[in-house]
Design a protein that fits this description.
The chain is mainly α and about 300 residues long. The chain has 13 helices and no strands. The mean pLDDT is about 80.
Length: about 300
């Protein structure tokens, strides 16, 4: 395990993601639109990537351009599909489908990258997906739109998985390098996501209530920070499959933070029944097994 301590990086990113998500959810409950939060989080990430070295080296121009554009489009597409998935169905249905990203990344790495994957990585990817489904899933009531929501979520997961594989290939094996493909790709994704704000029909004046700033700013900052670190991990270490499996533990961290800090944050979420608590513990255990497999055998 000592030779895999670098996996602590995506594990830390998972904790930062869960912390930022909880803070941003608090901001949403205090009156900030979810679409505006998404755009602000994108802008924060793009600003963070300004510190990478293409600009320090004199604004290096990508050659070829298409991988950078493809990375930006896939990232923006993933976000738009996620928003559509949540708008068409329940979060409890869409989230497990989005969690298939760990398995989809593993499949894409196997199909397109020259990287050997051990049996432990495959088993861990499956354990993460099943664990997440148990963690947040519930028996759907009603019909119809849930199928559309699941399809949109799966497409979003595929788009995000494609982004990770593009970043890995053009950072490690391609000619561009991480310091070019990631900053430009994120900048393009941010520009493409700006129109999302147009779908938020709340008035611009007073869009962020005063009481929401204290949770919105640190939430967006944490989200941007973890995005930068995780994307850097994929580009620098070149391990999108293993990284995404460990990063999937954000589902566990989310449950832990809600459990421990939910009351302090105004009871944004609570465990209403013993059955719900047991199900989440079972899901968290499966996900923990997946993370442990990657650390020990991946």
């Amino acid at each position: 395990m000592s030779d895999r301590l670098y996996l602590l990086i995506p594990l830390g990113c998972a904790w930062l993601y869960a912390s930022g998500a909880l803070l941003m959810k608090v901001a949403q409950h205090r009156g900030v639109g979810a679409l505006r939060i998404t755009v602000l989080a994108n802008v924060a990430t793009a600003l963070g990537f300004l510190f990478y070295y293409p600009w320090e080296r004199g604004l290096v121009i990508p050659d070829p351009w298409w991988p950078v554009a493809a990375a930006g489009v896939t990232f923006a597409l993933g976000q738009m599909l996620t928003i559509l998935a949540f708008s068409r169905g329940r979060v409890s249905v869409a989230t497990p489908a989005l969690g298939t990203k760990a398995l989809l990344v593993t499949l894409l790495v196997w199909a397109f990258l020259d990287q050997d994957l051990s049996w432990a990585v495959w088993l861990a990817a499956v354990a993460m997906v099943v664990g997440l489904a148990v963690l947040v899933g519930r028996k759907p009531t009603g019909a119809g739109g849930e199928v559309v929501s699941v399809v949109l979520s799966l497409l979003a997961a595929l788009a995000f998985a494609s982004f990770d594989v593009l970043i890995r290939y053009w950072s490690v094996e391609g000619r561009l390098g991480f310091g070019v493909v990631a900053p430009y790709g994120i900048a393009i994704a941010t520009l493409l996501s700006l129109p999302i704000a147009a779908f938020d029909r709340t008035p611009l004046r007073g869009a962020v209530p005063t009481k929401a700033w204290r949770s919105l700013v640190p939430g967006v900052a944490l989200n941007g920070l973890q995005s930068m670190i995780f994307i850097w991990f994929i580009g620098d270490f070149g391990l999108p499959a293993q990284g995404n499996i460990v990063y999937g533990s954000r589902g566990i961290w989310g449950v832990v933070l809600v459990w421990v800090l939910g009351r302090w944050f105004g009871q944004v979420e609570r465990f209403h029944t013993p059955g719900l608590l047991v199900r989440r513990l079972v899901g968290a255990t499966l996900m923990t097994v997946g993370v442990a497999l990657v650390f020990l055998k991946g």
